[in-house]
Amino acid sequence: MGTIAIIAAVILGISFMTFVAFFGRLPALRNTPISFLHRLIWIHLPNGLLTVDRTLTKGRLTTSLTRLGRHLWYDQHPTILIFFFLLLSVGEYLYLPVAWPHFSFTHKFFGTVAILCPYLFLYLSAFTDPGVINAKTHVREMARYPYDFTLFHPGTSCETCRLLKPARSKHCSICKKCVGRMDHHCIFINNCVGANNQRWFILLLLSTAILTLYGGVLGLVIIRAKIQARFPYWTLMPWWTSTQAWNSGDLDFHRWLLLWSWGLQSGVAMGGVTLLALLTTPLVWGLLGYHLWLVYCGMTTNESMKWQDWQAEMDEGGVYRRRMAADGSREKDLKVEPAWTRWPVEAEQIMVRTEDGKPPRSSHRLPGDGEWEAVWRLKDVENLYDIGFWDNLVDVFLPYFMFKESKGRSPVDEREFGRERGRNRRRSS
């Protein structure tokens, strides 16, 4: 029983700490125990250790650990990518020699596919350009999405890249680059998840989720068969199936655990990997479900945080919106906006926040028509980038799909925006 307890405790501990580390900052988990644990682990405990270190070593240990921590968390390096690769490969190395002879031809075929797919999608996620924005790709990225005048406003420049920020883009402090439709930086792939590789990232999550569930269930079946070959009255869940041995008292919970431990120890390597797969598969499926939910909502992880910030502003009051012409009749400022994008809809509203809680006074400087109205709920606000689940999926898996015709001109090479920017550069020089 000691082996099971140790393996399960270690796996559960690692899985739980990983969940807290990566999801504790999500807006949906604010004011929850997960958010509290995240602050405890990443804020309060380090501050307490810092105080102790200042007393004992005058801060020398903290300085060294801080430098190492900044490198691990804020610099691009393949450490976690290598760890993830080793986790897959070493786990399969320990699992397959014991499990493979028990597989039927069908399971061998589908098992081979399930094993190879995560490596393929890991490679594509890690080494595909996520949509880096530079001088060569800037015009193309500007034509990807229109500004929604809610989360993204025209005229904002990246101070590091010294380029106008396209809608839905974000500068990654780890990669030191701006990325189109930036979702987040993933340390498991050592790359940003952006417009060009989000499809591979979602397929990586899907293939890994299938692999852990498939491998865990098959391992469980093999262990069960091994135990039942020697102890026929043992079942995996006797309290649900109401077996005769369980009802008669010949198989109680203590003996059930002892036999389960015996089955694991008869093949410790495969048993440990099976437990690891079964205990981590909810985390992988949960992460996959979260990203599919984001696709359903037409959002990225970065944008979900922006929306939650807007909700916090609404709770305090002072958020206003007014309508804009959604038929494209609005005259655009071609110095900071593209004249045309591939997106099928244009901004229908502008939303602003005022410091005094009153409607904006200098309305003539802001686009839109009509009176300003107060906004108190996110569901009353249109998300320009949500065009329906299936079209959202098309946008993710076909990142350059043209949702509307370019009316005889190339959206990349003949952009009025590009010509206007060129004229401005010539004037400034």
Set down the secondary structure blueprint.
Elements: H1 2-23, H2 33-56, H3 60-74, H4 79-99, H5 105-127, E1 132-133, H6 138-142, E2 157-158, E3 163-164, E4 170-172, E5 177-179, E6 184-186, E7 191-193, H7 198-230, H8 238-241, H9 244-248, H10 253-265, H11 268-297, H12 301-316, E8 319-323, E9 349-353, E10 369-374, H13 389-397, H14 416-428
Q: What is the approximate shape? A: globular
Count of individual helical segments? 14
Mean pLDDT value: 83
Query: Given the helix and strand composition, which structural class is it?
Result: mainly alpha
Question: What spatial order of strands do you see in the largest sheet?
Answer: 1-5-4
| Cα distance spanning the termini | 77 Å
Strand content: 5-15%
Order of helices and strands: HHHHHEHEEEEEEHHHHHHEEEHH
Question: How helical, in percent, are the residues?
Answer: 40-55%
Number of strands: 10
Which sheet architecture does the biggest sheet show?
3 strands, antiparallel
Please, could you describe this protein's structure?
With about 425 residues, the protein is mainly alpha-helical. It contains 14 helices and ten strands. Helix 4 crosses helix 11 (about 270-295), helix 7 packs across helix 10 and helix 7 packs antiparallel against helix 11 (about 270-295). Mean pLDDT is about 85; it is low at about 405-429.
Question: Which tags fit this structure?
Answer:
8% strand; lipoprotein; three-stranded antiparallel sheet; 429 residues; disordered C terminus; transferase; mainly alpha; 10 strands; EC 2.3.1.225
